[in-house]
Amino acid sequence: MWATAWMHDANKVIAPLLGIPDLPVAPLPDSPEEDDPSVLHWKTRALVEFADGRAFVWVDDEMGDLDRAWVAAHHDGPALLHRVNATTGLTAADLATIADWCLLHWSTP
User: Fold this and answer.
1) Are 11 and 22 in contact (CB under 8 A)?
2) With 0-12 CB in 10 A as exposed, 13-18 as middle and 19+ as buried, what is 106?
3) Its pTM surpasses 0.70
4) Are the C-beta atoms of 91 and 98 separated by less than 8 Å?
5) Of 66, 55, 54, 60, which Cα lies nearest the Cα of 28?
6) How far apart are CA 72 and CA 63, in angstroms?
7) Helix 44-51 vs helix 65-74: angle between axes, to the nearest 10 degrees?
């Protein structure tokens, strides 16, 4: 699922570059002109509300400790907030971390 300010444009621009199919888009508020790292990220509340207690992984280059603390205090299910380096993007090490977390928190029937 996309949780990006690109919204549905992510399926038109980013998905083809990554070779992935169209994905659903999380309902997010409008993004601010500038992000302020000293306040809760503009996506945090919306993602927790949308997750509704379900396990989720949020991969972003902007979230911080404030967001992690807020999710821990307001989300009943497991959540991984994984920050990636904006310069290098998502790496094999990031994907391994996410995969390991998923194996611990999701099971197949």
Assistant:
1) yes
2) exposed
3) yes
4) no
5) 60
6) 14
7) 30
User: Do residues 24 and 17 make contact, with C-beta atoms less than 8 angstroms apart?
Assistant: no
Alpha-carbon span 47 to 69, nearest angstrom = 14
Measured over the CA atoms of residue 88, residue 91, residue 22 and residue 63, the dihedral's sign is: negative
Residue with token string 């659903």: 24
Task: Tell me the two tokens of residue 80.
Answer: 């991984």
Tokens found for residue 54: 């379900």
Query: pLDDT (tens digit, 9 = 90+) per residue, 9-48?
Result: 999 999 999 899 999 999 999 888 777 778 899 999 999 9
Rounded Cα distance between 78 and 56, Å, is 7
* Dihedral sign from CA coordinates of 1, 86, 64, 92: positive
Task: Report the length, in residues, of the chain.
Answer: 109
